[in-house]
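Entry type: protein chain
Record version: 2
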Amino acid sequence: GHYPTLIHEMDFDEAVALRAVAPFQIGATIVDLDASNVRFRGGADGDYIPTEIANIMRQAPVLEAAATIRYEDPETSELPTLVCCATRQHAVTVWAYFAAIAKSKGRSAPEILLHETRNREQIYQRFEQGCSDTIIAVAVPMRGWDSPACKLVIDLSPTTSMVRAKQKWCRPLTLANNKVARIELVWPRRLRVRPALPGDVFGPSLA
């Protein structure tokens, strides 16, 4: 006989209800920066040109908004955090900004995860053990990383790619003691091509 390969397709609301993923909340901060000049690279893997979106997202209003979420907001300041950046230089800029704040507050220094990082397993281990509480990364090194500890993603890298969006936003959804995960988007205004939105990834209840 014929047996279908897809028996049931579960959406995120059902997954949360069945405790397959952590319950989660999404917030958005739109900074007053004009991104209308950011160009779009077409093709099957089309997206914003990384260096151009990074040049917008390295500016002071973005850094200040991200740091407020990470270090000042009482609802998020204690959550182990992944910060998603567009390019290597973007990640380095955010790391330096966060490192200065962390030092002034007596917090653990943020880790940085780049394409060339060789000790990524040690970085992951320190994060899972609570020896560090923030990882700042570009997209590629995050693939395949499952982290029960991570409960906050600060996304500083808008994308039109559903695949890339899902890779970033699903990082904090590993169930761990029923802790609520947070996804915080910090994005500019007036992107000419619509980015992937939470409703696209998680379903119409979050549209």
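Comment: The chain has seven helices and eight strands.
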